Amino acid sequence: MKKRSLIGLLALGVGVSMTLVACGGNKDKDSSKDKGGSDSKYAAAIVTDVGGVDDKSFNQSAWEGLQEWGKENDLERGKGGFDYFQSNTDADYMNNLNNAVKQGYTTVFGVGYKLTDAISEVAGQRQDTNFVIIDSVVEDRDNVASVLFKDQEASFLAGIAAAKTSESKKIGFVGGMEGEVIGRFEAGFLAGVKAVDPSIKVDVVYAEAFDAPEKGQQIAAAMYNNGVDVIFHASGATGNGVFSEAKDIMKNDPSKKVWVIGVDRDQEEEGKYDGGNVTLTSTLKGVGATVKDIANRSKDGKFPGGEVISYGLKEEAIDLTEGNLTEDVQKAVDEYREKIISGDIEVPDKP
Amino acid sequence: MTNSMNGKLKGVIVALLSVILGLVMGAVIMLVSGHDPIAGYSAMIQGSFGDLSYFGETLRQSTPLILTALAFAVASTAGFFNIGIEGQSLLGWLGAVWCALAFPDLPKFILLPACLIVGALFGAFWAGIAGMLKAFFNTSEVIITIMLNYIALYLSNFVIRDIITDGKDATPIIPDAASLRSPGLEQLTDYSRLHYGIIIAVLMCVIVWILMQKTTTGYELRAVGMNPFASQYAGMSTKRNIILAMVISGALAGLGGTMEGLGTFKNIFTQNSLPGLGFNGMAVSLLGGGNPFGIIAAGVLFGALKTGGLLMPTEAGVPEELVDIVIALIIFFVGASYLITYLLDKLPAKKNALKEGGE
């Protein structure tokens, strides 16, 4: 008796689920067809790191670049066009790269140094697909182009801007994770500050995360409490917390003046609040433009496989926005920009 | 006998109903948010069992989860809530990779077992700390292990950055002699990362089942879990069993992390946050009813959800967040299994009552 009703209940459960699923199927059957995408021999996709395409920073600008590329080439989002694959954990990189290849994307971008090993492995197995690794180098693979940015140069300019703007002569740096890549930002920034005034103290703190705004906010709160008035963050989505804290401070006490320097893309939008903006300036990293450029080269059959391409101020791939810099500060920044481009100043890439 | 059979059957049905209810609720949410559940779930099935390479990845994903789920099950049989599997598995991962990098020239038949053992020992040591504190000072293992998770996270980041490498955020790749990967399995599954770890995981399930069900040690662990006072009165050492349970649990957790180190990634890198092996393992353990064979099934299901979920955004346009919601819903219904059990019990009773009333 008991057993029978158990099985009955199970059957009921299955039945209900089938009906529901079936109903769902009929209702919007067409929605899946919209995703068909266009038919093209050149299809490009990006695989994000764990930051995701809405990190308001690195991944997002890569995705924006790819979307522009798609628009210019009359491609649609989806197979045969362009798309992104979001990674939720580090274990997903390989799966996503493989999925992108299987779905027929001919050029696959790995956004961020965390994908280095995964790209190296997949590229060895899937030799017909072009891969691009951004912010890192994959060696000995003819179907991988490596893209490096001289982040230290833009960070140097950020350091100039920070040192010239700071009134308290205390400046903060919030890093994502300690290591080679963020080390470039730190080194450039410190050198820039020092070039203006060696007596300025820079408080360097690493959040140990690119996706933890709450940590960013905590660190920023501690720094601002200690009298720091300009913070440069190189920490992806973690930096959103730095912006929140700065905005909170300004909202509660408009007489204080605190600034945030954004990273990788113009973060003017993130600094907006009622009555002003806390974004002093942002370092620009032409991730989007690079993605577009390489996708085009790949389309024209001129994929720079096996090459390491280095983009700096000279190539206009990185820069510092005008943002809310005063005229004097902007002038100083411009002077140093020229010096770096002409080679008079060699910016260190290690802290 | 019939009663226990019925109990087991009920356990299986409750688990199945949890999964079905989770999937149904997931479908409802997809519908409400304007996505096609059939396309969504077909993409998920395609992405987890669609071809050999997907299937290989599904098994690969489930390998560490099976081991961490076993770890949770052993501890909870003995009456502990080991929430520190996360940290124990991370340290196991670190230990195994460290060992492999320290002795790159050893032959495979020595190095691979050594790395596995070191990984398990690292995990066992970390869990042992909580076990000792519990046994001798009666501290709450929940709080201690939660805190130890964070210490493990930052400790491993420190070791990677400042001891194994010189300021890098990932260690070099381990030598082939320490790798669980096999070119044969990779070729068989079209370059998935399936590795020999799955065999180890299944083997550990059998060993744990024998240990818990067929040996005196297992009997004592279960007895302590059911009633520590009664078992002490019966002459069992509660202290010894507490520590033993935590050490076994930690060793299994460490082995789970080792699978990532020697199989999936072949190195270890600094982590943003805890990698989630432990928390997912807890869910797998609950869904599997703490039974080693239930855990294998639940582990494969979780592997399928996680691997297949990756295909849902691009194949069916379902956002990746929804996949996590479906998984969370399944866990929710496992947690709410009391409700399902209650309904199962009440339904026939009510029917009987009605019948009697009618007569």
TrEMBL record, chain A:
It comes from Isobaculum melis. The keyword Lipoprotein applies. Belongs to the BMP lipoprotein family. It is a lipid-anchor. Residues 45-349 form the ABC transporter substrate-binding protein PnrA-like domain. Its main location: membrane. This is Nucleoside-binding protein. One of its GO terms (cellular component) is plasma membrane. The lineage of its organism: Bacteria, Bacillati, Bacillota, Bacilli, Lactobacillales. It is found in: Cell membrane. PROSITE patterns: PROKAR_LIPOPROTEIN.
Automatic annotation (TrEMBL), chain B:
It is a multi-pass membrane protein. Pfam families: BPD_transp_2 (PF02653). GO terms for molecular function: transmembrane transporter activity. GO terms for cellular component: plasma membrane. It is found in: Cell membrane. CDD domains: TM_PBP1_transp_TpRbsC_like (cd06580). InterPro entries: ABC_transp_permease (IPR001851). Keywords: Cell membrane, Membrane, Transmembrane, Transmembrane helix. The chain crosses the membrane at residues 12-32, 63-81, 87-103, 110-129, 135-155, 194-212, 242-265, 277-305, 325-344. This is Nucleoside ABC transporter membrane protein.
